[in-house]
Structure formats: C-alpha cells, structure tokens
Amino acid sequence: MQIYLDYSATTPIRPEAIAAMQAAFTQYWGNPSSLHDWGQRAATTLELSRMQVASLINAPPESVIFTSGGTEADNLAILGIARHYKQPQHIIISSVEHPAVAEPVRFLEQLGWEVTRLPVDRLGRVHPLDLHASLQPNTVLVSVIFGQSEVGTLQPIEALGKIARSHGVLFHTDAVQVAGRMSIDVQKLPVDLLSISSHKIYGPQGSGMLYIREGVELAPVFGGGGQEMKLRSGTQAVPNIVGFGVAAELALQEMVEETPRLIGLRDRLFDKLAEVPNLVPTGDRYCRLPHHLSFVVASKDENITGKTLVRQLNLAGIGISSGSACSSGKITPIPTLLAMGYSETEAIRGIRLTLGRDTTEADIDWTAIAIAQILERLTPKRLTVNC
After folding, report:
1. How far is the C-alpha of 59 from the C-alpha of 196, rounded, in Å?
2. Among the options 326, 338, 370, 372, which is catalytic?
3. Neighbours of 9 (CB within 10 A)
4. What tens digit of pLDDT does each residue of 144-181 get?
5. Full DSSP string of 184-249
C-alpha cells in the first residue's frame, strides 16, 4: 500500500490533461507565432488555454502571461517591476516567502534596493498594521505569499492589498498553493500581480502564469522574440499550456465539492494526530490551506529531524515532506519556522503532509497509525527502577 501525501510539492497529471496534451503534440505542434495554418491552429489552441486559466481566477484572458512555472512568474513580477527604475527603490515582502520571491528580492538588495521583511506571529501570519508602518514614499512593490507552503497559514491578502492600494503601491501575491483549492477572484481581490503553477493543480510541470492587472507595466526579464505580450519571449510550450488549461478548467468545476472534502480529511488527520506525543502542530489551525497539515517533532533525541520521519514513513509506503520541496533535500533549519520564532533545533524538525484528489479516509487513518508507531519507536524511553 502506498499513500502519497506531498501534493504541495507536485500533483499527478490528471488523465484529461494528458489526453489534451497528446492531441496538442500530434495536431497543434506548429509555432503559434507563424502565420500559416499550422501556426494558427497552435495559436488558437493557446488562446483557448489562456481563457481556461484566466477563468480560474476570474481574470480577463489578456491579463494572463504564460511562464515556465510559478518560480518564473514570481521572478517576472518582482524583477519586471524593478527594471522600470533606474535607481534602487524600496520593496516589502514577508519573512515567510517562498524562495521564488525571496531570492530575486535578495538579488535586488545586493544591487542597492532597500528591503523590508515583515515579521510574522507564532502562527505565521503577517499583521496588516506592520505593513502600514513599513510603507515609505519610495515603496514600489509589496509581495506577500497567499498560502504558506511549509506551514499552511493563509495570509490576510485582502487587508494587505487594500493597504498597499490605498498608498498607490503595487501588490503581488504568490498564489501557487491556493489556486485550484480555494476560490480566487481578481476582480474583487486587491492584487495587481498573482502567480500560479500548473503542476500544483494536476497539470504538467513546466508551465505557470502571471496575472497582471490592466494598467500595470512590467519590463521583460530577458530579451527575445517578444512572445506573451512582449513580456515573456520564447516559443510557447503549447502542449504544456494545453494541459495547464484543462487542469485549470476542471479545478474550477470541481472546487465546490473538492475543497470541503479536503478540509474534512485535513481535520480528520489533525484530530487523529492530536493525542500523539511529541508532535506539535505549526501554523494556523483553521485559517490555513484546505489540504495542508504541518508539525514539529518534539524530541530530546538530537538525531531525530523532520527528515528522519520523512524517511521512516517512506519505508512504510507513505510520502510526506520536510519543508518546501525546493529545499527539502538540505538538512538545515526551515526558514519559515525560524521566522515564526522556533529555535534552530525545532526548525529542523518540521514536517508537512498535504492531501489531494486521490486521498481517502483510509489513507488518513493508516497514516495516523503509522506516524504514531514510528514516533513511539523513535522516542527514547526512560528507564524506571522499582525499589
């Protein structure tokens, strides 16, 4: 029996997306920039996919720029704004951003940009008043992750976006973990830029998108043929984008039933693990991603880390992760937990379990049993002497 509980790292491509991609490979293989029939068939297919992806967040199709994934979309948002300025300005991010935001911002910092990293509380949440206090006359962009990938906490994006907008500052959010799992309406949400990744919603790896609100101007990050409204040069990977479009369309259709199901399974596992010794929940228990659970393993044995439990569960046929998939191969403290006030010892003991379309109640129940047994075996026993 194998149980996959790492859906925040990647999701399996759904069959409908695979079928659409196969058709694209064989029927729509032309270059969408070409004017002949082969190219125009590919271009028409590309624009249909743009409409499908745009509908997932209720955006106009022309506001969607296809990228190679969430990382490129985040980089385009951050660096695309920065390249408009000849002199370094001020940018604000949270202290719990994904590396796809944190690293380009660190690059700008090396170029002389001033960066404010908003603190978070013990639950991993940014306080809107902190954003308000951090705004400066030369602040040009705020970027705060929508749903934190390592501890699951949802940020008050609407409140944060309103503060930024009231000061005339652009607002970006990485919605990679939220899209397809929770409703997003950019017509109502005060965001100017929003990133999504295909492989988090059962589409193929290697495709993503950046939503750009009308009137927001970005500079391209690299030069080329000027595809994607001259913002993302390079011939579009039509089959990948087609798979992305189908996955987005189906996610939108199924969300009304799938999201409550995931919340039910998430809470069932939380309840079953509540009595397990040495397992401490992290993040906001309720204001969190619908599919996400996270914990810190509390043990006096310094050899036990989050990765210890990942390996032990893998031997039992259960796949979970320790931290973000982009950095989970390293035995280092999880930066998000450090930002939340956990010690370095605690921050190397974080684990994440994320649920998906194939997760069942039986999977939840068996996983809870396996975790309890593994922790009982790993936890040092105290020797008692009866006199």
Report:
1. 13
2. 326
3. 19
4. 999 999 999 999 999 999 999 999 999 999 999 999 99
5. --TTTS--SEEEEEGGGTTS-TT-EEEEE-TT-----SS-SS-HHHHTS-S---HHHHHHHHHHHH
User: Which residue has 């929770």 as its token pair?
Assistant: 182
Q: Is 326 a catalytic residue?
A: yes
pTM for the predicted model, two decimal places? 0.94
How confident is the model over 229-276, as pLDDT tens digits?
A: 999 999 999 999 999 999 999 999 999 999 999 999 999 999 999 989
Task: Show Cβ contacts of residue 307 under 8 Å, excluding neighbours closer than 6 positions.
Answer: 322, 328, 331, 348
End-to-end CA, the chain: 46
Token pair 């990228």: residue: 67
| Predicted local confidence at residue 384, as pLDDT | 43
Tell which residue, 265, 375, 370, 267, has the closest CA to residue 319.
370
Mapping DSSP to helix (H, G, I), strand (E, B) and coil, where does residue 66 land? strand
How many angstroms separate the CA atoms of 51 and 69, rounded?
Answer: 17
